[in-house]
Every structure is written in structure tokens, then in C-alpha cells.
Write a structure and sequence with these properties.
This protein is α/β, with parallel strands linked by helices. The chain contains ten helices and 14 strands.
């Protein structure tokens, strides 16, 4: 697994496009997020279909074609320096195949931020464009609006990425050790759902796999991890970092499952690291070479996430 191309860091005055690739966006949360971005000295622009609601499927923000058109237009606009998703939910897998990846590649690299359902886009940007992306809070997300720790870590990563080159987790160790690899991951249910699709990578070989999820019962997480194991997708992974598991049941029960499913990989596994759907989530860059040290609970990037 090779490192990806790093987009340029942001500076005051940078123009950032807000897109809704998944679920519908509450307007009051969107307005709050825009105010915070302006407070950072950024110039946020809301793409035309962000406030849309699908007429038949209430869980989607507008039609698949319109959501894809917004993302592609933002990416191909030379005045836009970054694209930040408004929220997760569900819907990326319905629109990702409608994007013109050749046109987006020709437009060059820029910052991309999102998590949860956006995992499918992180994978697509990695396989189609070889681009570093940021797994972090979204413009209309509760964590971005309400949690200063999450917001500040994202801000520092965007503007001063050398200050977040060492990411310190808050949890413990499932399997001790040190490992070097290229970061990848996201919502583990989305990684499993991506298998066999045009944008899925062949596997996590040589990678530091960062996974988390939300509101999945233990047996469903068992099924997801077993699918990744049986498919060979986890063969050769260098290390695993577990994030938050909000609404997935008592962590001690999950810990038993993770030990059963991941302990046999023979690689370091850190747990409750502090990224994902939990409060104060850290921003994690994907596509960057890094070293995981479970003893110090650190993920040390070999280069800043952004150039």
C-alpha cells in the first residue's frame, strides 16, 4: 500500500464547498456550521442541492444525480479549495458511481472531509485518485457544532497539520506492539458493504486499519468482521486501530468480539482510540504513512496530513 497525494493545507480566505452526499440536512445545524467556518476565516459556499429532500426516500438529501452533481461541480471548480460533507446518514453508495472520476482527477487534489457514510467516498478517492482524505467532523454534524475538542482538532489539521502529526488516543490496548503502514478505514459496515464494488480496494495489506461504527448490534459486527476475514481483505494488514462504537452495546462485550475476530491477525490492535461517532472525535487522515505504538497510544504520521 502506497502513500497518497496530499492536498494543500487551508489558509484564511480559502473557499470551501459544502455538499450533502447522504442524508437530509437540518437547516439550523447547517447555518451553525457555516457560522463556525466563517469564524475560522473561511469562505463557505453551499452547493445548490444541499437543502433538498428526496420526494420518495425521506432518508436522502435530494436525488442521487443531484447529490453527485453537487460534489462533482464543487470538485471541478478551480476556486474551491476544500469540500466538506454536511452530514452522513445513508446515500453515498447510490451516487458514487455517477461521478466522473476522470474529470475530478483532472481538476487536481483538494481537501475532502467527512466520515460515517462518507467512508465509501474515502475509499473511492483513494482508489480512483490516490488522494489523502480526512476522516473528521462534518459541517452540520453535532460534534462539529457542540464539541470544541473535535472542532479544534479538525481546525488544526486543516490549517496547521504539522501540529497534529502525532495523534494521541484515549483508550487502551487489545494486542500490544508497534506497526508501520498507510492509514485507511472508516465505518466498518461501509467497508464491508463496499466489497466487490468498482471503487473498493483489493484489501488492507500494508495498511493501518482505522475502524469504528455506530448502532450496530454485536452479532452484526461479528458478521461484518467475519466477512472481511473470509474475503481475505484483512490479509497482510499491519495493524488495527479501533475507534468509537456508540450504540453498539457494552464495550466489554465488544472487546471479547474484537479479541476473537482480530486477535488472530498477529498484529497490534489499539482500542477506544477516540475517532468516529463518539464525543470529541479526532480527525484521522487516510492515505498517510504512520507508525502505531500501543504502549504510548500514539499514531505518528511520517508527514503532515496536508502539504
Amino acid at each position: 500500500m502506497r502513500e497518497s497525494t496530499r492536498p494543500k493545507r487551508l489558509a484564511p480566505g480559502a473557499r470551501v464547498a459544502i455538499v450533502a452526499t447522504s442524508g437530509p440536512v437540518p437547516d439550523e445545524r447547517l447555518q451553525g456550521g457555516l457560522d463556525l467556518l466563517r469564524g475560522w476565516g473561511l469562505d463557505p459556499v453551499v452547493m445548490p442541492h444541499v437543502r433538498d429532500r428526496h420526494e420518495e426516500f425521506e432518508y436522502l438529501a435530494g436525488t442521487d444525480a443531484d447529490r453527485a452533481a453537487d460534489l462533482q461541480a464543487a470538485w471541478c471548480d478551480p476556486s474551491v479549495d476544500a469540500v466538506i460533507c454536511a452530514r452522513g446518514g445513508y446515500g453515498v453508495q447510490r451516487m458514487v458511481d455517477l461521478l466522473d472520476w476522470s474529470a475530478m482527477r483532472a481538476a487536481g487534489p483538494k481537501v475532502f472531509v467527512g466520515f460515517s457514510d462518507i467512508t465509501a467516498l474515502h475509499e473511492a478517492f483513494a482508489t480512483r485518485m490516490g488522494l489523502v482524505t480526512l476522516h473528521g467532523p462534518m459541517a452540520a454534524g453535532v460534534d462539529f457544532l457542540k464539541n470544541e475538542k473535535a472542532r479544534e482538532h479538525l481546525r488544526a489539521t486543516l490549517f496547521e497539520p504539522e501540529t497534529t502529526q502525532v495523534i494521541t488516543g484515549s483508550g487502551g490496548t487489545l494486542v500490544p506492539g508497534r506497526a508501520r503502514g498507510v492509514t485507511l478505514g472508516g465505518c466498518v459496515s461501509l467497508l464491508a458493504a463496499d466489497l466487490g464494488t468498482p471503487h473498493a480496494r483489493a484489501g488492507a495489506r500494508g495498511g493501518l486499519l482505522m475502524i469504528e461504527d455506530v448502532e450496530e448490534e454485536r452479532y452484526r459486527l461479528d458478521r461484518i468482521l467475519t466477512q472481511l476475514l473470509r474475503s481475505g481483505w484483512l490479509d497482510g494488514v499491519a495493524g488495527v486501530v479501533l475507534g468509537s462504537w456508540l450504540g453498539c452495546g457494552p464495550y466489554e462485550d465488544l472487546r471479547t468480539l474484537f479479541a476473537d475476530r482480530l486477535g488472530g491477525l498477529g498484529v497490534p490492535v489499539a482500542e477506544e482510540f477516540g475517532f468516529g461517532h463518539g464525543d470529541g472525535a479526532l480527525t484521522i487522515p487516510f492515505g498517510v504513512a504512520a507508525t502505531l505504538d500501543t504502549e504510548t497510544r500514539t499514531l505518528t504520521l511520517e508527514r503532515p496530513a496536508l502539504a
